[in-house]
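Here we describe the complex-level prediction in full. Unlike the single-chain runs in Section 2.1, the two entities below were treated as one system.
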Amino acid sequence: MSVTEKFETMDYSPALESRANADAWLTSNDHAFGMFIDGKWVKPEGAKSFDTYAPSTGEKLATITAARQEDVDAAVKAAREAQPIWAKSGGHTRARYLYALARLVQKHSRVLSVLESLDNGKPIRESRDIDIPLVARHFYHHAGWAQLLGEEFPAHEAIGVAGQVIPWNFPLLMLAWKVAPALAAGNTVVLKPAEFTSLTALMFAELCEEAGLPAGVVNIVTGAGDVGAMIVDADVDKVAFTGSTGVGKAIRRAIAGSGKKLTLELGGKSPFIVFEDADIDGAVEGLVDAIWFNQGEVCCAGSRLLVQEGIAERFFAKLKARMGKLRIGDSLDKCIDVGAVVDSVQKKRIEELIAKGVDEGAEIFQADCPMPSAGSFYPPTLVTGVGTDNILFKEEVFGPVLTAITFRTQGEAVGLANNTRYGLAATVWSESISRALEVAPALKAGIVWINGTNMFDAAAGFGGYRESGFGREGGREGMLAYLKPRYEASLKDMKSTLMPSAVKKPKASGEPGIDKTAKFYIGGKQARPDGGDSVVVADHKGDFAGLIGAGNYKDIRNAVEAANGAAKWAATSGHLKAQILYYIAENLGYRAEEFEKRLVSLTGASKKAAAQEVAVSIERLFTAAAMADKHDGAVHQPPIRGVALAMNEAVGTIGIVCPDEAPLLALVTLAAYAIAAGNTTVVIPSERYPLLATDFYQILETSDLPGGVINIVAGERGAMTLPLAKHYGVDGLWYFGTKDGSTMVEREAAENMKRTWVNYGKTYDFMDATQFSARTMMERASEVKNIWVPYGDANEGGKPY
Amino acid sequence: MTENFVNQGTAFHADWLDGIRVNKSAVERRTNTLAGRRAVKKEAQVAFMLKAVSCIDLTTLAGDDTPGRVRRLCGKAMHPVRSDVLVAFGAQDMRLTTGAVCVYHEMVEEAVKALGSSGVPVAAVSTGFPAGLAPMETRLEEIRRSVAAGAREIDIVVTRAHVLNGNWQALYDEVKAFKEACGHAHMKTILATGEHGNLTQVGKASMTAMMAGSDFIKTSTGMEGINATLPVSLVMIRQIRDFYERTGIKVGYKPAGGIKTAKQAVLYLSLIKEELGRAWMEPELFRFGASSLLGDLERQLEYHATGGYSVAYRHPMG
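The structure predicted for the assembly as a whole is:
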């Protein structure tokens, strides 16, 4: 088109970024890649291969090796051998390597950006301005954690070998999120990029060579989901996965009971809430960043739009107009907003979901923007006219599809926002700081953005609630996902403590004493067991000590109901929580002697040991009380004009299955920290010594503890644990029992992604203040929510043009 | 373009102002990422630069302005780009001129004479420019005299106190009075946004000025500490869009001061294209208030014509 014609149309011209560097790299590798194992490039004879394509054009970019079992084994073996040396090399040495990697990413930023956009289909603007800079930032930040490791985490050590499986939506960025913290903490890694997008991971392997990283510290194997499964099953100590919720659950089940640590960053259906007092044009533009960023192939995409009714009509009109301005095209065009979806498979999936949504009554609006003729493109789409049961309102589409619904009040907005099994991110638009900061904590999401969206930084943890997975990436909490407490290595196997099979029944004679009835404690009231059965409890000699109700799944149901109903405990002040915990300690102190005697009689402990257990229990209550008003969050300073508030929030309702060791102290310790962090609990006391718990609820009754915060149901450990593990209303489950029981808990908890802590049949030393240090326990009992708050109003400081 | 863009204004609607809320961070995020989203390259880049030339209000507003200086400026306005450069783009027949010449009242007559039948209008800054604190009668009379002297466009300034104190009715009344004094001349309302407290005030002042009949809204006098910025521009043109949606009336936009490079000018045009659309990318609805911008556009255009980076002395001085 001539200049004068352009002068009339004022259209843009394609502005293609040069791909020469990327092509040169592909050519120099003959468009065929092996894998990076033990510091060497290997292309095993006989291994199958697959092709990787540019979704914008459909052209084949390269042939990638499909790893076999022996290749994965070799990679894991290399990582295993390299790990102790890597861990011993020290924080400063590892910091140097991570710093070098950060620098190398910057030095090769252009070719990495082009390669990423070619392989994934995302706009070059995004890979150049967002993905790759964040990759470098992540390595810098974690170079810092490596440097500070000894000082910041003195009681922790590396986990070992991390098996990491990453998705195709942010290929190199997800690699950075996985590799940087793992290496900083002293782990070695075996990483598999997604089969659609292996190229930048392979180029990263070259950067590892360039940085002189010791062989085996980073191993990159390629292939499809079956290779991912091989890594998960391999001899790794930690599995980190980012991807779909379905696969995440399968992984949780597959490694249940193995003792492998796990972090899962899974799907989402994140709400984007626009209140009537929002900057409406700003919020419309925010949606471009929320759902049309990376073609909507973003786990935290703001895909559910909630608009207050009074502004809805105007908002939708503005939104539709804005959609018409979006430009879709070649991923290397510097003049587009939306690129290609990663593969025709994904495009087909989007089409199918849309068709289902339409079948269910949804109305579809698609932007009238020119679509490229070739490549796998899907137009930006707005879905309206849906109820909360429409598939497009409930299910993750992972495409440029926004589903909208309206609300009347703030309360309804929060209700709709939380009406999902997911809980990854949320966005709130309001010019009222009072409203925004009230809504943010009420949202079930690991990340909340106020008046902005999809903001990321290595210093602010990223990760979800509910079925969006668990564990955090980035920040201090992200480092903890690649560390384990030092004491863990020395835990011994638990010895079973069985109830004697034949208990001598008491023979009544003379004037009867007053019958003692040990009940359950549910919702602040004593409750008889639903089944109406009791079992005999023996003292340490095998003599009759009392009867205890035999709990069943209905008692669990009732207890969870009560615990869920007491959720506002989380919002009570730290001061009040502390007061109540102190008061429990005080009341236990009054009856210390009685508990000592009970311990001696039931467990056969020496008088001295029993006295010590009671004393430490009181001390634990004091420590939990002390922490209740000190478990403060953090204020991050991300690279925006604003702050990210890292708030510690309660997990929710935590099931606590107590061990038989230290039957009073274990119960007190676990419950005290759980409630100090704002959780409500369902406690299953020691199966062998349940009477200590039933004695204990009398103390709770006199200590102003609101009903439902601690619920106690006794019964056979396994029979009590199963319904807890399967209960969707239970958000966390701490289990101290057998190895098999631990496996069962981790497997059954997968369905609603409970945060589990199990002992794998090992014995914890409840007297040991290190194992149950206040900080560690509060971290277990809470989730970190990062609330991003950009600020600024004064009319100054804008860029001077 | 044959459409005649005249804004007769509307009644004062306080409720149109109530919903205006501007989040500064969100505005900046949009303007900071725009250049990355819209790379204007090749023939589009040349077209955008030529368009920028056609939208310049070539301006001299200095105490030492003389008739000679103004004549020279008018010459430049009628032939802003060297003809051999235009030939290189096949654009020699497009009769490229700047959008207007912008001067103080005293220079209007000279400018009108110098521009003759070229079609380039004269714009006069008025109403006690730049502070706007002269007596109301004086300000109104200044408008009338400039119009009588041949100015087809009047750039008025508003009383900043009305904006800072949220006295929108008073601002409306003031601008409406100026509009009446302008008669058939196009009125550009200078909001002096650099002196507003925040962007929400900028938005409300913009809407008020349009309700009162402004044909253009303009950022600055060029004399404030902060003149045109992209964030302020985004806020103002979004109000122009809302006013158009409410009334069907297209109001023009003029960023003034601080726009010195071709790159900036192209980015501004992209912003207009994205937020307002193609219709606004014409001198009837968009102007740059600038004195040094043209020089950079000339040099960049020569680079595109020849492949060699240019220097100022190769282009006729204005």
